[in-house]
Design a protein that fits this description.
TIM Barrel; eight-stranded parallel beta barrel; 16 helices; binds zinc ion; 4 domains; binds 3-methyl-2-oxobutanoic acid; three-stranded antiparallel beta sheet
Length: 514
């Protein structure tokens, strides 16, 4: 057995299934590139058959992100498998991940298949995948609620058909660590063959990380995880927690390690939080803002005297050494571009120009900008293309406890300005209504989150919104020293995404149309 645990990241597939998350291709690419810098072994980039957009995102990642194996998820049907292969085939190393439900409840209510049909589907799906690639993973969905004998029969079939990784999903988070560990050990013992055994644990009982680690202890050599523990319902096992548990307690895992560069964990967590709009709880293990904060005098005294008195992890080893001051209002374009490059942020062309302009505006209002501030600015500008999109020229708001809040905005697009004034329930609502009127793009806010980029009263406000426009659901981000302005920017950012998506759909329609 290998002395490394393979980290299979499914943030872009299972993580994106978390309610309200909708990433566009540029955002998925940005996350995939960061996952590659982080050093994960495998990126599950998506479920290609789900939609054209999903297919395109998986294909774009397979074509441009080097390093990790790029995997796509597929049901057992031949058409699904072929579509999945089409999406991942251009990767340096590609994997097809086949799944089918095996629990009585799923077979009866969802698949409407008999046990014999599920076995036959497993054989045909995995065999078809093997015609495309030698790297095939198989998952019996809802494994922890599947009768053991039947699960073993399905897994045996998958191995005979050529599966090289057997993944055991605790789809509904039903597992208890020692029981789940026994299950993994039993599979290992009962199914002969040359395959890697993997865990995929959901967090419905808050046990996803514990169950994954129990699986490793019992012989699993791949763990499926998501950054920040994102995923369906209560989420998946958190990547950063599994990785650091293995790093801090090798004594408990026979010296097993991972290839993850832990110094990239905090940055990866911030990027995913910002792009998904899922805020990170302050006391989140490893990457939370308070993970290295000490409140009580006794603790502070201890840590100042010797860090290890109250800390088992060195903050620097997970990239949490505190936000460094990096640039101020005297910094020029060269220093700006240089710093972004050193931070591993890739941004070019129009987006780089707009980011630099925003940086200058903010640096004029705030004395210094930290790495985290720069990440937020770049995140706001990512994917923008100046000529086709609305830019915020000015915003004026009045509000308070007397009178109706009112906002006036001027936006420009390709050199043409339009302005509008609107009233709202509050200043933020008024600003969004005014933008809606000035752009003519309809949509309703389905999510709104405001946080500060760094601590302190002079911190930048970072706003993420979710906007529903007809069938489209997009997110938008904005940063500013002022929360109302940050909200307006986030709303406009989301509006631009709607405009872009509509243009893309229109292009597709005319390409395929009569
Ligand atoms: O939770 C689950 O069962 C899954 C499978 C598709 C692996 O996500
Ligand atoms: Zn899952």
């Amino acid at each position: 057995m290998s002395d490394q645990v393979t980290i299979f990241d499914t943030t872009l597939r299972d993580g994106e299934q978390a309610p309200g998350i909708s990433l566009d291709v540029a955002e998925k690419l940005e996350i995939a590139e960061q996952l590659s810098r982080l050093g994960v072994d495998i990126i599950e980039a998506g479920f290609p058959v789900a939609s054209v957009g999903e297919f395109e995102a998986v294909q774009a990642i397979a074509r441009s992100v080097g390093g990790p194996v790029i995997a796509g998820l597929s049901r057992t049907q031949r058409a699904d498998v072929d579509r999945c292969w089409e999406a991942v085939r251009d990767a340096d190393r590609a994997r097809i991940h086949i799944f089918i439900s095996t629990s009585p409840s799923h077979m009866e209510h969802m698949l409407k298949m008999t046990a014999a049909q599920v076995v036959a589907e497993t054989r045909s799906g995995v065999s078809r995948a093997r015609e495309h690639t030698t790297d095939v993973e198989f998952s019996p969905q809802d494994a922890t609620r599947t009768p053991l004998d039947f699960m073993l029969e399905v897994l045996q079939t998958a191995v005979e058909a050529g599966a090289t990784t057997l993944n055991i999903p605790d789809t509904v988070g039903y597992g208890i660590p020692w029981d789940f560990g026994d299950l993994i050990a039993h599979v290992r013992k009962s199914i002969p063959g040359d395959y890697v055994i993997s865990t995929h644990c959901h967090n419905d009982l808050g046990l996803a990380v514990a169950n994954s680690l129990a699986g490793v202890k019992a012989g699993a050599r791949q763990v499926e995880v998501c950054v920040n523990g994102l995923g369906e319902r209560a989420g998946n096992a958190a990547l950063e927690e599994v990785v650091m548990a293995l790093a801090i307690r090798p004594d408990q895992f026979d010296g097993l390690g991972t290839a993850v560069r832990s110094e990239e964990l905090a940055k990866t967590s911030r990027l995913v939080s910002r792009l998904t709009g899922y805020p990170l709880q302050y006391n989140k293990a490893v990457v939370g803002r308070n993970a290295f904060a000490h409140e009580s005098g006794i603790h502070q005294h201890g840590v100042l005297a010797e860090r290890s008195t109250y800390e088992i992890i060195d903050a620097a080893s997970v990239g949490q050494q505190g936000s460094q001051i990096v640039l101020g209002k005297h910094s020029g374009r060269h220093a700006f571009g240089d710093t972004l490059a050193k931070m591993g942020l890739s941004i070019h062309g129009d987006a780089l120009n707009s980011a630099f302009t925003r940086f200058k505006e903010l640096a004029d209002r705030k004395v210094t900008l930290t790495e985290a501030d720069l990440e937020a600015i770049v995140a706001e500008e990512l994917g923008t293309s100046v000529e086709a999109e609305f830019a915020l020229e000015s915003l004026e708001v009045v509000g308070g406890t007397v009178g109706v809040p009112r906002a006036s905005v001027v936006v420009s697009r390709a050199g043409t300005k339009s302005e509008a004034t609107a009233e709202g329930d509050g200043m933020i609502d008024a600003a969004c209504q005014a933008i809606r009127a000035a752009t003519g793009v309809e949509g309703s806010l389905t999510g709104f989150n405001v946080s500060s980029v760094t601590g302190g009263v002079d911190a930048l406000g970072d706003v993420v919104v979710q906007l529903q426009a007809g069938e489209l659901r997009v997110s938008g981000r904005g940063v500013s020293t002022d929360v109302v302005e940050a909200s307006a920017r986030a709303y406009l950012n989301a509006t631009n995404r709607v405009v872009r998506a509509l243009a893309r759909n229109e292009r597709r329609r005319t390409e395929v149309g009569p």
